[in-house]
Design goal:
Alpha-Beta Plaits; 4-stranded antiparallel sheet; 4 strands
Length: about 90
């Protein structure tokens, strides 16, 4: 199943994102479940969140992925949602 993970950064947390970016990207690449990923941008073009499309067996696997993300472990996110997602185009 595909799952869309959408995370919103805490206000003023850009430095936390930058400090943990290398570990986060390595985690995504090593996971084997990331179909696509990238940062969300605010009106000024600064990174302010994440959108990650996962291909996982079930929602429990998506939750395990979420819990292991270095960004989450660093306390970057104000909120994280996991939603089942159906790819129609692309």
């Amino acid at each position: 199943m595909r799952v869309a993970l959408r995370a919103k950064d805490k206000a003023g947390a850009l430095q936390t994102r930058l400090d943990n970016r290398e570990a986060h990207v390595a985690y995504l690449k090593a996971s084997g479940v990331v179909e696509m990923a990238g940062p969300l941008l605010d009106a000024a073009g600064e990174m302010c969140g994440s959108l990650i499309i996962l291909e996982v067996a079930d929602m429990a696997a998506a939750e395990i992925f979420r819990d292991g993300d270095p960004y989450g472990q660093a306390g970057l996110f104000e909120s994280v949602t996991l939603d089942a997602w159906n790819k129609v185009i692309g």
